[in-house]
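User: Quick sanity check before I run a bigger batch. Here is a single chain. Can you write out its predicted 3D structure?
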Amino acid sequence: MRLLIVLALVTYCSSMRQQAVAVSGRLMCGNRPAAGVKVKLWDEDDGPDPDDVLDEGFTDENGAFHLQGSERELTNIDPVFKIYHDCDDGILVSQSGCISSVSLMVIEDV
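Assistant: Done. Predicted structure follows.
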């Protein structure tokens, strides 16, 4: 019985495939580069498997960013790019402590 369980686990683990994703670009706030903006790349999962942060960082002084990450999953990963910003919303973060966020699904570049 123990051998059967071990074989089942080995088969399950080997069926999970390594998948990778990368996003890069430049964020602008109006006509100015959006410097110092927090960006994250997530793999959104369904069910009991929690979402995974694949990579995170900040835009540079030109608003440029590059994030990449990989995950071992049984099914296709569902990458989501999230931007946490305070661009032209009329509310100062220092006064409110609020940051807006935008989530974008990452699609395959063919």
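Residues 93-97 have pLDDT under 50 and may be disordered.

User: Great, the batch can go ahead then.
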